[in-house]
Structure formats: structure tokens, C-alpha cells
Structure prediction request, 705 residues.
Amino acid sequence: MSNPYTFIATTAFGLEAVVKRELQALGYDARSTSPGWVEFDGDLSAICRTNLWLRSADRILVKVASFTAADFDALFETTKSIDWTQWLPANAHFPVEGRSVRSTLTSVPANQRAVKKAIVEAMKSQHGVSSLPEDGPLYRCQIALLKDEATLTIDTTGPSLHKRGYREFAGGAPIKETLASAMVQLSFWNEEKPFLDPFCGSGTIAIEAAMLGRNMAPGLNRSFAAEQWANLDSVLWQEARAEAGDLQLPPFEEILVATDADFRVLRTARQNAEKAGVADQIHFQEREFSDLQSSRKYGCLITNPPYGERLSDWRELKPLYESMPLILKRLPTWSHFILTSYEGFQKLLQKNADRRRKLYNGRIECVYYQFHGPKPKSGETEPVFGGINEKAAEQAELFQRRLRKRARHLRKWPSKRGIYCYRLYERDIPEIPLVVDRYHDHLHISEFERPHDRDIAQHDDWLELMRVSAAEALDVPAEKAFLKRRGMQRGSAQHARVAQDRYETEVEENGLKFIVNLSDYVDTGLFLDHRETRMMVCNESLSKDVLNLFAYAGSFSVYAADGGARSTTTVDLSKNYLDWAERNMRLNGFTGDEHTYVQSDIREYLQSLPDDAQFDLAIVDPPTFSNSKSTEDDWVVQEHYAELLNSVLQRLRSGGVIYFSTNYRRFKFDETLIHGRCHEITKQTIPEDFRNKRIHRCWRIEKLD
Prediction:
């Protein structure tokens, strides 16, 4: 018989098809028999060739026998009846391992003892000896039971095939070489395509790709247990190694790119690549994922990003994963292959993968997500992440028409009143839920709300289209149109996808100057809906001691000083906001000692004031205490506000006034809780350029004698 032996290539669950293809490429007729096992037939040379060449298998086993064993007698007697001399010499060292799945014989140790005893008795009889010294080569045996079907095997490999011999050093969470190779083989990559791994760690995926591209046998630089076997002629190993050397290809033209943010792990990756013999094939570079880029049009991104198994790990990693679609869309025509254990990955991306495959990274259950880019020379242009469809183009035209109409309507009154910062658009068209404000010759565009059922990358491209369209419609240079995406503040991982630097500019309102930040924060530093309220404060500040609580960038303090306030006290918990407020005051020439700035929690500040500290006018514009939809929480919020306002009233002189504003839209103001005369002035405080007449609510509260 040309192929008298049956062998089993073991592999991690999910990789059986990959191993089967590898065996077929070597000329063996492979068949999957059970999860993690791929059988094939061959002569003794198959042991040598498969151990040297298989990239995704764990080990190569000799299948000694397979039989039904529903009890110990059947297991023992059948094992004893096998001719073990064809494999095991009299001095063989043959430990027995075992496993049992859904079988009557559930005790693995008992099964091991029975098989060991049966082999010992068989070998004594077959070799004609009275004892077995077990001081010879290693023949690791295994008894595996699956549904009462027993399979006896001998391991030819020794240490698992993932131990190529090149990775002496590894990062904190290395991926096995066998899994890394499978990831490459399951992708569209070949040696003619660009390759990129932005989380390369110790370099395993890139190294395996380079070895695959050069047809380097992964086991060529290591030894195997069967090399010590007497019945396996050393000539077979010599021939197999010579074949592997002859088939190895020279370096190919494409240089693989592997990046990581940690320069220390890159040092390890370079050492590993050097030892694997592919250092000249890979360019390792220190780079943050947020800086991902490539000038190449088509390629494959194959990566194993960090993932944690504890909830706290995921909380830290979530911003990274949320940033992925907007960063990966920088490679619109590439194919992307990502292995992760995060179950909500697709939901987070709001995009389904073209293919998914369950794989195991060690004992961690993962999914290999495959996002297929357009084929080169196919004429396809639709990007993997992002893109603009016909509907978006229609919306852009509709948006522009509305903006031009609003601009014509508002072209006269702002400048006549000294107003250069005003609202142009606020979700006028429901399907375009944006806010557009004009700050002199700049535009500030922000999301009114963010749809949760939209592809994140496509939504990002949609927003960019709206930004450019708004600038064009209003004759504003595109670089002066700033877009704020929800949930993206400077300093977060998400902000990496917004390529706008910090941008401040000086604007004017009613003859006063303010510094606005159009790039970093959701708010610019000048709340446009409080324009009328600011004038009320200005008109009531003459010779008053004014207290500005939750002052933010201090615009109310500027108006109060301009109205002739005797003193202003600006209080906020944020030092950044206080510095901003002081800059605004200096910009308008208000620099005297009568203007003070206090960094403090508002309640602590009010409690710390001496008894003789009194004010005439106070502005209270607190942040929303709650976003809950619970009626019970509404009462809690109301009580918080009442407690705060009564504390402020205690610090006012007789006849003193509070201007109280809130954007908590569900707020119900119970005036009976307030120790003063309350009068709602919301209608008078909403500027005429605001279509939304519920942008805030406002009260004038007067302290009674």
C-alpha cells in the first residue's frame, strides 16, 4: 500500500478547514472527522513533511487504532490486542494522556491507567521481555473517547507546532503563531498586496505573513519528537528538510508594515523577525492607531487589537473600539480582518462584517471579522467603511437651499443691532438634525442628536458632507466651518478622528468682545440663546455687586461690568473656565480689583461666605442635574434647584434679583419652594433667530423684604 498509515492533524476549533487546505496543498487527501481533528493518510515521510509545513495545526498524531469501548474490558482488551511493536521499541518512554467527551467511561485517569497497563502487557509479550525500562525516545500516547468511540494515538510532534523557534520574546498577550498564520490564510492577502497590522505587538502576524509569502516551512528551524524514533529513518527527515529549503523563495518586493504604540514591544518584534529570517521583509514602526494611514490603494489590514476579559478592561478599551470605523475609513478600498473577543463589536461599529468565523485565541472565544474591500481593477468604488449615497447628496442640496433662505431672512437685522453671532439653522429639516451658528465669518455646526442605527463611518462622512455644503451655501471658507460631533471632546480617543486643531477667535456682540473656541468643546464659550438675558443683566447692573455662579466663560460678568457694576464675582469649579472668563474681562478692559474670580464648588462657596457678604444681583445658570425620564427624579431635581436658589437669596440684599436659567426641558418650577417673588421671563429671553422657543427657561426672582 502506498499510504499504509493514518494520521491526525490536531488544531484549534474553527481552523479545521484551513488545516485541510494546507494538507491538500502538500498532496494529502484530508478529511475532517471531528472538531479539532483532520485525518489524512500517508507513508512515514508524511510525519516529516507535515510537521515541517503545517502552519495552522497544533500537532501531528499517528492514529494507532479506533474502536468502540463502552466498558473497561473492551478498552483494555482491545488496546492489548494491538501490535505495538510497529511503533514502540522495548525501551520506549510512553506516558499516556486522555480525554473523554460524552462517553460511558467518564474517568480520564482510570482510562489512562487501563490503557497504560494494556500497552505494558502487550509490549512485554510482543517484545519478549520481562520489564520495560522506558529510558528511550518519547512516544506520547493518548486515549480519546468520544461517544464511546475510543481512538489511540501517538504524538509525533513534541512541543506544539506553534513553537516555531523564532519567538523567544513576546508581549503581554501574544497570539499563537498557528492562529496568526490562519488569520493571514483566511484573508485576501498575498505577497503582491500591501499588508498592515496596526496592533502588531511582538510581530507574530506580520512574521507569519512574511514566512507564508516566501514559502518558508514554519518548522524548519526546530526539532520534533519523532526525529528520535528508531522506526523513522533519519534520511526521511533529511529529504523533507532539503525539500523545504529548495522550495523557499527569496524576499518579495512588497514590504509589510507593522506598527504599535509601544516602542518596547517593537524591539521584541524586530528581534523575533530577525530570528525568523524575515527582518528585511517587515517595516516595524512606532505609531498610535489614531495616526493610521497609507498611500496605497488596495491592501489588507490584519490585526488582533487588545481586548480585556474583565469589565474594567472593556471600559478602558471602549473608546479605542469606538474610534475604529472612523480611523479604518482612511483606508477605504482596503480589506480589513480583525480578531476580537468583544461580543458587541459589530453593534459598536453599526456595520455587519462580510464574513465572521468563531476562533479561539488560547481559551478565549473570539470572532474573526472580515470586511471585504473592492477588488483591484474591478471598477468598484464603494468603501468598506464610510461613503456617501445618493440620499446624502440630495440632503446636502436641501440643506443648502434652507441655509441660503435663512441667510437672506437674517441678512439685515444682526449687524444693525451689533450682533454678529447668531443661529441660522436648528433642525429645520428633521432628517438633517444639525445646528448651525454663525460667528462673524465662521460657522459652528453641531449635531442636534445622533442616530444610533446608522453606520458610524458613513455618518461621519455624512457630517463632513454637511459641513462642506454649509460652508459653500453661506460663502464661508471650508476651513472656517467647524463641526462638533456628539461625544467627542478633545482628550478622548474618539477625538483622534477629528483632524481639527484647537481654534479660537475673537467675536463681537453688542459692542463687547469675546473669545470663542470653535474646535474643542460642544459649547463655544458664548451661549447664543442667552443674548437677551445678558442684556437684561447689563441693564440692571449699574452700581450693583454682581455674583455670577456656574460662570463658564464669564459672558454674564462681562455684560455686568459693562453695565456699570460696582463689583463682579465670577465663580466656577473649572480653572480653565475661570481663566477663560478672566481673558474675556481683560479683552474688554475690565481689570480692576473689583472683579474677582473664585474656583470652587458652588454650594461650598455659598456656605463659606462670611455673614456680611452681600450681593445685589446674581446669575444662576447651572448645568442640568439629571437627564432621567423618571417623574420621581424630576422632584429631586426641583428640590436641588430650590435649595440652591434659596441659598443664593440668603446672600442678596433686600430687593436683590436672581436671573435663573435652565435648559432642563422637563423641569417643573414649583414657585412655592422659593423664598422670593418669581416671575417667568422665558419668552422675553429667547432671541428671535431661535426657532426653538424652548431652548431654555428663565425666571427673574426678587428677594422680598
In short: Residues 23 and 621 are 72 Å apart (CA to CA). The chain has 19 helices and 27 strands.
